[in-house]
Write a structure and sequence with these properties.
It contains 19 helices and 12 strands. The protein is of the alpha/beta class. It is elongated.
Amino acid sequence: MNQYVNKEKQYKSLDLNLMKRLLKYAKPFWIQITISLILLLGVVGLELYQPILLGKAVDEFIVNEDIPGIIRLAFIYFGTALGIFVLTYIQSMILQYSGQKIIYNIRVEMFEKLQSLSIEFFNKHPIGKLVTRVTNDTETLNELYTSVIVNSIKSIFVLAGIIVTMVAYNLRLSLITFTVIPFIILFTLIFRKKTRKIYREIRRRVAGVNAFISEHVSGMKIVQIFAVEKDVYNRFNDENTKLKKSYMDQLKIFSIYRPSMYLLNIGAFALLIAFGGRMVIEGTITIGTIVVFQRYISKFFEPIQELAEQFNVMQSSMASSERIFNLLDEEEYIENKEVTKELKEVEGRIEFKNVWFQYKEDEWILKDVSFTVEPGETVAFVGATGAGKTTIQNLISRYYDIQKGEILVDGINIKDIDLKELREKIGQMQQDVFLFTGDIKSNIRLRDESITDEEILQASKYVNADKFICKLENKYDQKVYERGATFSAGQRQLISFARTLAFNPDILILDEATANIDTETEMLIQDAMEKLMEGRTTLVVAHRLSTIQNADKIIVMHKGRIKEMGKHQELLANRGIYYNLYKIQYEKVI
């Protein structure tokens, strides 16, 4: 029992903290929200006045057969309805505008946060779940700002107004009809407890299904190549079934709660007919009072139903906001110092001083690595898979931060350099080239409008990409589909070379950039690479040793340590790890 109580307190504390944070986003729009609340009070006042008009019509005009009075009162009643319509419209427009601005700001903050997070974060979190945060979860919050908060206040105002008005009309009859309130409170509390857990489960299941779909649609080619469609379908069906069960649990609770409220509504009417009818016969109240009470009883249950449904959305919003703030509070990001040292004219000198790095605790990928790359040098890294070659390149651009040691560019610790400035100086090309939906031009300039069409053309010609682009129907305006699926691996790589050159980096990083390219295209790229590397510091990760024989320096990695360092012929003469790797590859060729 104590465990359950503690859990309830934890939930309440969590919801309260979440609501405080959510309200901070509404603070800049307090004027609009205040106006909206004032208009809402006007709507509530008119709605509460309508039953009084009906009671007056019965007691003063219908009983006395006063036709002009009835017509006059009908116009007044219509005027209240028109007033409700106008005030509701204005209030809704103001609130929707404010809500959309709030959600826009939250989306912007979330996307900025995603861009600041480290690569390690994206390695650990499915993309589908992150997309759910920015889309589905923020849309759930939209309903909270534009509907739930203000309408909950309206419902409370209506309930309070009805109770006060009914008591003012007739205390005895009010107390009789209010006997259903304890049952309303009991059923609502039970409903609230049951729905809290279900809504968090639904949001978790929705994110899980989205992540599964995103991953397997992206990898559909692999699914079809290995003919595992049935297995993938069964796994999706399991996830989908769990989500359906969560929704069904929610529906079961609502299917009990709503009829319960309806039954209590009928019960209140029955009490009104029994006791109110008797009081009319006794002459203690008028028929108009019965009409007023009948209308107020109907209105009394409407806000209760609305509060229950708003609580429904509130729970969904709390679950969504919890996930959103978990993302916004994420600390897996690369810290960018407020005061940084400026990289002016980059020479390209790179130095690793006793660098230690691990992705997971006590699993060192790099162990006491030290080396220096002089300006303009081409340095290649070789070694078995997992030796730490690619990790070294990722550390230079600060996609990860090292645990021990120092990495310097032109004598400045990269942690003291502004991240954006550091990465602008480094051009990195990988085996897996990512192309965005758009056209070839937009993929080369990456929305940087300072790069002109002429510069794109020159860069493409320089890396020999122009040869295949000019053969396309729309040339540089050729549509690019997601991930560049309509281009070959070689064509995608040529576009990435043009992209890198267009940004004119001072340091080049090539992660086996010719690994997935046919022989003819490789010849074009090798020609371009020689031009591209001229005058630039270049780091190359190579698996094919034939591509790095002319490097100024070759660093041989083994289990996170530097084992050999030197030129191609020197390392062959040493007959060490490099010699064995070269011999294995040469024998394969033979």
